[in-house]
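ugh ok fine here u go
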Amino acid sequence: MSHIDYYFTVLSPYAYLAGLQLEEIAAKHGASITYKPLDIMALFPRTGGAKPSERHPIRMEYRAMELPRQARKRKMPLNFKPAHWPTNAAPASYAIIAAQNAGGGDLGALTHAILRASWVEEKDIAEDEVVQACLKEAGFDPSLTFSGLLTGAETYARNLEEAVNAGVFGSPFYVLDDGAKFWGQDRLDDLDAHLSGTL
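structure:
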């Protein structure tokens, strides 16, 4: 059975636009997923990237065209300039880590609910109430926002180091146990084909 390490940030519009396609592909091929939320702002300078606020205007102009275009392509709503972005990604990331450790709910649904809260619903995912609502929606105990803080912080930091060591430089990023890597929601079809043995 194949395994996928899914590196991402809850701040990523491209992770939002991936929807639940990764989970569908994994189910199709009987693959397992480990969700690895990380601090993308710390990852960028370590892997040759730049924070959005530090990017050249030409790159940001393209981003302003590409994000709405990808949303239309996928028929997904998207607020290109959400009210609470960027925000503190740690609370929502810790909750995902705690939920993964606790089990009993739908991690894909939780991750997408958090991303949707930011990029569609104009909510601040740094607020406990917002994250707790996402946990409950996905079948997890909302109190995980409190009980998972220490482990969440440790794992969050470790995910960053593992990402650098694995050659990850953006979000979403998918690393398979056979060494194959795929960057971006627009490469999920390639990931699917790879698991099928046709690519």
